[in-house]
Design a protein that fits this description.
The two termini are about 25 Å apart. The chain is α+β, with helices and mostly antiparallel strands. The protein is about 35% helix and about 30% strand. The protein is globular.
Amino acid sequence: MTLLRAPRPDDLPALLALNNANALETSLLTDQGLSDLIAASWRTRITPGCDGICIALDQDAPYDNPNFSWFAGRHERFVYVDRIIVAAAARGRGLARLFYEDLMAAMRAEGHTILCCEVNLDPPNPGSDRFHAAMGFSVAGLARLDDRGKTVRYLERTV
């Protein structure tokens, strides 16, 4: 059984490398950018070997991001998954599902009921589309992020 935990400062180099190896699906970060994102998060969990990370923010996060802002304009209270990344070598072990189960348990404990995220439509991410559909997410909207060269599908589910 994999036990998730909060990141420690000595995890940050490995987590930055994991993030930036998957920047097409998420976005590039600097050392400071990753530290700031974790500091602003409502909940961040990682796998013991730093081969997976989940960063989620709630409605109170000081986060200047068009995807987060889209949900903030629609919900008074919510949790937004900024990124879940699992290293290629660790995929297929149920880690993404584990991250979501951990996050939803924390949400229930604090009275949150709306879980939000986005998945790239262009460039496509069919694996993530299938996963989120299986996890009970539904499409809430679409957006073209011209400054990022992406089109995203906004997803939500009730917890």
